[in-house]
Write a structure and sequence with these properties.
The chain is α/β, with parallel strands linked by helices. It has one domain: TIM Barrel, CATH 3.20.20. Helix content is 48%, strand content 16%. Strands 1-4-5-6-7-8-9-10 form an eight-stranded parallel β-sheet, sandwiched between helices. A two-stranded antiparallel ribbon has the order 2-3. The relative contact order is 0.13. It binds adenine and zinc ion (ZN).
Length: 324
Amino acid sequence: MPLKAELHCHIEGAAAPELVLRQARKYDADPAPFIRDGAFVWHNFTSFLAAYDFSADLFRSEDDYVLLADHYLTSLARDGAVYSEIFISPDHAKKAGLSPKAYTDALGEGISRARAKTGIEGRMIVTGVRHFGVDAVEQAARFAARSGNPLVAGFGLAGDERIGDYEDFVRAFEIAREAGLGITVHAGELTGWESVAAALDHLRPARIGHGVRAVENPDLVRRIADLGVVLECCPGSNVALGVFPDFASHPLPALRAAGCKVTLNSDDPPYFRTSLKREYEIAAEHFAMNEKALAALTRIAIEAAFVDRRTKSALLARLDRPAR
Ligand code: ADE
Ligand code: ZN
């Protein structure tokens, strides 16, 4: 397996059930409806979000978030990852009673601890959650623009794609762009190709979270390839959520063949019974990608990373080094 990099993982969604159970004991919460037999329980996107919000609410202190980021990035590094961008959500922190600044700095501390142990580089992408409303997304953008944390590198839009229009979020993305943040937008996951076109038209992202349903419109696929917009593909998440019935129907190979820049990502790994390592294995098994092809995806991810030029060069050099 080649070295790996990840651009799309929601940090609250990366908490393993065992860790969430530990947090539930710590805060005296009943996990019964959301965790059964050591696994998260959900049956569609709405109930997935409910389980996700329940778990996120059990991370309440700075120590909880240090542990969460350290835990996840350390496990990624053990699976051969050299770089990780995590989506963070100040709205979830506020709901859990922590200030966005304390939350972000704690996650940054977790990233730094994992780096000190393993060498993995990490950055944070502040996300607005669209089903929390336009004002909340603008507040998240304003926070991202002035967080003062050097590991905050981007701004993104997540949440339920079926709620709100991309046009509603233009101001939030102007604030983030003016602050020099990288831009990524979830689209083309739960809703069709039109959402990807609308995201490109209104928010001009460098990357699209998922974007896979662009495959429904060949002109749009060409537009994505011509623009060089990077697709943060999450095949395990898509099949678990029923966006596609199986890996054989997943469009990653078709998008790649059409010249789109695709990457592999785990999204919310324990909810979808996946991991970044497993996504590389899925691509090998189901998309017939050999080592060289997988290594090329890692390179695309690093090239698309929202990271300073020096760090990017160092990471690319790491990919070129022969395996020890
Ligand atoms: N938030 C956490 N996971 C998500 C997903 N897969 N799509 C949109 N928003 C999310
Ligand atoms: Zn996502």
